[in-house]
Design brief:
The complex is a heterodimer of chains A (about 475) and B (about 290).
Chain A (H helix, E strand, L loop, with lengths): L1 H15 L8 E5 L10 H9 L3 E5 L9 E2 L2 E2 L3 E4 L13 H9 L3 E5 L8 H9 L2 E2 L7 E3 L15 E4 L23 E4 L5 E2 L5 E6 L5 E3 L19 E7 L5 E5 L7 H4 L2 E2 L8 E2 L2 H12 L5 E11 L12 E3 L3 E12 L2 E4 L9 E5 L3 E6 L1 E5 L5 E8 L5 E9 L7 E10 L16 H23 L14
Parallel strand pairs in A: 1-2, 1-5, 5-6, 6-15, 19-27
Antiparallel strand pairs in A: 3-4, 7-11, 8-13, 9-10, 12-14, 14-15, 16-17, 18-20, 20-21, 20-25, 22-23, 22-26, 24-25, 26-27
Chain B lengths: L1 H19 L3 E11 L10 E5 L10 E3 L4 E10 L2 E2 L4 E7 L6 E5 L1 E2 L4 E7 L5 H4 L5 E8 L7 E10 L35 H24 L7 H7 L1 H23 L3 H31 L4
Parallel strand pairs in B: 3-11
Antiparallel strand pairs in B: 1-2, 1-4, 4-5, 4-9, 6-7, 6-10, 8-9, 10-11
Helix pairs in contact in B: 4-5, 5-6
Classes of the chains: A alpha+beta (about 475), B alpha+beta (about 290).
Chain lengths: ~475, ~290
């Protein structure tokens, strides 16, 4: 009876819990299957959110990311492994193919083990750089935990990151206000290239730096990076919206640090770490449970009185008034909700041929029945004829890339759509001229046909 | 024993207090900015300061050809000791970007660093506001680290050489709105000008008829013509008027395919009736009445 009740409860619990929007098959790659006990809370949270987890070591023969051309897993979680390579089934090329097939990867590094070379090549491919010799430890002599690392200073206590920019929503701060911190124990920092696809989630404080404990224990002669340039948790979202996250410290995800008590140097109170919530947010973003957008529909129609307003016509005329609407929903943990664009950001429509003629901010209107928010705008088509595109190109850090394009022809005025000459005041003299000519012609014909010669009152001829 | 214990405790307390207050600092700091100017070297800018604030009040000038040298001695609790982290950090105030320059530290605590303007990252080298330089000296263990702003650095760029530009990398975000600027509608001259010319043209019609009358125009033979060939003349002149009416209808609403059949019929009528009507006119001419 008890097991039946618990089964029913669990069944319903799993139904209402979160689930990824892009599949639930998760592969965890670790050195030794027994290691998963050290991450039991994190993995348990993932299972509670609906993921089907498989555990494999890099050496196992049955590990295949692709089967007959299709992905066999939707997401991969890499925990630190001791071996230098990852085996023939996890080569950088296979991992890149996995990302190109819209697979998501969460990679956890550790300062105690150098990262495998295939992962380092993959990271280089994405322009994420690890310290030289694949080994580096991030320390901070001003923000460390006195309870666990009073001498080595390698457990950093970080404040929640906050929004990346004013126009980007904050996805990764665990609920603030209770003074909780994120513990980052013995991790490796990364530096990011300058492309738009790379975004840091958590940056190191300005006094921290990375050094190699084996070779730079006495003095830091060749500094890899320090301060803001050192990124502790970095992300890359590919153009097909596949997500790749590098978490510099795998211990951040371990049970020990999920509910540890820490005390920052210089503070008197102990606080609890917010690592569990932070891990939920980071894994939720990477595995497409938050920050996912979906376009429900795109419509455009003619907006002029007396004309048909059929949806999505293929041809318009120059200077027509048209209305464009797009409906977008956002996936939040387990359901789609209407997507609200952040305050200082704007969803923009470009009406462009080779370059945009109009770039207009779309205005949110109502919610439609598919849980999408409808954004629309009315505008006048340019006075250039040609083939145009209605283009919505919404790419933002941490949000799925939205690119919608609708192609229409825009024709010129037809011969009978021009204003008539009688409304053009400059044409009035010409029209009266025509009227005068017609009148004169008819009058002349009448006189010519029916006149009697006038009597010559004076003879103008010269007489001989 | 009792004698010993009476001053052991205060000693221990003092030791404990000293231990709790141990911190890193520096001393004997010397900042030298040497450079070359065309036409011999210019003066060295040498500043000496110690580990206690205020440090340097005047901003240090850093030109393109200058070499910036800082020598100091890191100290823990006043004794020279090697610090693991001894960085000179330049911060650009408007963007908040920081560039660290690690000092080479010896066992005794003596630390040096040498910086040229080409070592500065481009974002700091093109800055117009003075950079804030701070020192971070800290190491493992329980001693409190030292992090304070020391002085300002004014980066001076050589005005002759090509200006270095910093191109911001692409970041996704909202772009500027574009509103297409339409070509101006074709404009007519002021209506009054058109009206003046319309009136001028309208005035020609009566003046034409009046001049005809003055020159002796008349339609006195109309009854005679009508009695001679009423149908022909009526249809002929009527068809001329009908043709003009057809052209007016074409202007107002008809299209070409509506006009052409009508014009064809009217034209044929004009031709057929015209033979008779003009024949009558010819007869009048031959009779000498024209």
């Amino acid at each position: 009876m008890k097991s039946l009740i618990s089964f029913v409860v669990l069944f319903w619990a799993s139904l209402v819990c979160a689930i990824s929007s892009s599949g639930d098959r998760l592969l965890v790659v670790l050195e030794d299957i027994a290691e998963k006990e050290g991450y039991s809370k994190f993995l348990g949270d993932l299972e509670g959110r609906g993921f089907q987890i498989n555990y494999e070591t890099p050496k196992s023969d049955s590990l295949r990311l692709f089967n007959l051309g299709e992905k066999s897993y939707d997401h991969v979680l890499f925990l630190p492994t001791k071996s230098k390579g990852l085996g023939p089934h996890l080569t950088p090329k296979i991992l890149l193919d996995f990302i190109n097939a819209e697979g998501n990867i969460l990679l956890a590094l550790s300062a105690s083990q150098p990262a495998p070379t295939s992962l380092v090549s993959l990271l280089l491919e994405l322009d994420i750089h690890l310290p030289p010799d694949r080994q580096g430890l991030v320390v901070d002599h001003f923000n460390y935990d006195v309870l666990s690392a009073p001498e080595k200073h390698d457990v950093l206590l970080l404040l929640p990151p906050g929004p990346l920019r004013p126009d980007v929503r904050d996805f990764f701060s665990p609920s603030a206000g209770d003074g909780s911190v994120i513990a980052f124990p013995s991790g490796t920092g990364q530096t990011l290239g300058s492309g738009p696809l790379l975004t840091p989630i958590l940056r190191a404080p300005s006094t921290s730096y990375s050094y190699n404990p084996k070779e730079q224990a006495e003095t830091v002669d060749d500094l890899f990076a320090s301060g803001d340039q050192l990124s502790l948790v970095s992300t890359m979202q590919a153009r097909n919206s596949a997500r790749f996250t590098v978490v510099g410290s795998a211990e951040l995800l371990s049970d020990k640090w999920f509910d540890a008590k820490v005390k920052k140097v210089g503070e008197t109170k102990e606080v609890a770490t917010a690592n569990r919530k932070f891990a939920k947010l980071v894994s939720g973003w990477t595995f497409q449970e938050i920050g996912v957008l979906k376009v429900n529909s795109v419509t455009h129609h003619l907006n002029e009185a007396g004309q048909s307003n059929a949806s999505n016509p293929k041809i318009y005329r120059i200077k027509n008034d048209v209305t464009y609407s797009i409906s977008i929903s956002e996936y939040v943990w387990d359901k789609y909700v209407p997507f609200v664009v952040p305050e200082s950001d704007a969803l923009q429509l470009e009406f462009s041929m080779l370059s945009p003629f109009h770039r207009l901010n779309l205005v949110p209107t109502s919610d439609d029945e598919k849980n999408g928010k409808v954004y629309s705008i009315s505008f006048k088509l340019p006075d250039q004829h040609g083939i145009f595109n209605f283009k919505v190109n919404y790419k933002r850090p941490f949000l799925t890339n939205v690119e919608e394009k609708a192609t229409v022809s825009v024709r010129h005025f037809a011969h009978d759509e021009w204003p008539r000459s009688y409304v053009i005041s400059g044409a009035w003299p010409w029209l009266t001229g025509i009227a005068a000519t017609v009148t004169g012609f008819l009058g002349f014909s009448a006189i010519w046909l029916y006149s009697k010669p006038a009597t010559r009152s004076k003879e103008s001829k010269k007489t001989q | 024993m009792r004698f010993l214990s009476s001053f052991v405790t205060p000693l221990l307390l003092a030791a404990g207090a000293a231990q709790a207050a141990s911190s890193w600092g520096f001393d004997d700091a010397k900042l030298t900015v040497t450079g070359k100017k065309p036409g011999g070297s210019k003066e060295k800018d040498v500043r000496e300061f110690d580990g206690k604030s205020p440090f340097l009040s005047e901003p240090v000038k850093f030109d393109t050809t200058d070499t910036f040298k800082l020598k100091l001695k890191t100290q823990e609790n006043g004794k020279g000791k090697r610090a693991h982290q001894a960085f000179l950090v330049f911060r650009e105030p408007t963007s908040g970007l920081e560039a660290p320059f690690p000092l080479t530290v010896k066992d005794s605590g003596k630390a040096t660093v040498e910086i040229k303007q080409s070592d500065l990252p481009i974002q700091l080298a093109v800055s117009n506001t003075p950079l804030k330089a701070s020192l971070v000296i800290a190491s493992f263990g329980s001693s409190q680290g030292f992090q304070k702003e020391i002085f300002d650095v004014q980066v001076i760029r050589d005005p002759i050489s090509a200006p270095a530009t910093y191109e911001k990398p692409l970041r996704y975000g909202k772009l500027q709105e574009i509103h297409h600027i339409f070509r101006a509608d074709p404009k007519s001259p002021p209506k009054i000008v058109s009206l003046v010319f319309v009136l001028a043209i309208l005035a020609t019609i009566p003046s034409l008829f009046i001049s005809w009358v003055v020159l002796g125009g008349n339609i006195s033979h109309l009854p005679k013509a009508l009695s001679a060939a009423p149908v022909a003349h009526g249809v002929f002149f009527g068809s001329l008027i009908a043709m003009e009416a057809a052209f007016y209808a074409y202007y107002a609403s008809w299209n070409l395919f509506q006009l052409l059949p009508v014009a064809g019929i009217i034209g044929t009528t004009t031709f057929l009736s015209g033979t008779k009507a003009l024949g009558e006119v010819q007869s009048r001419r031959l009779a000498g009445e024209r």
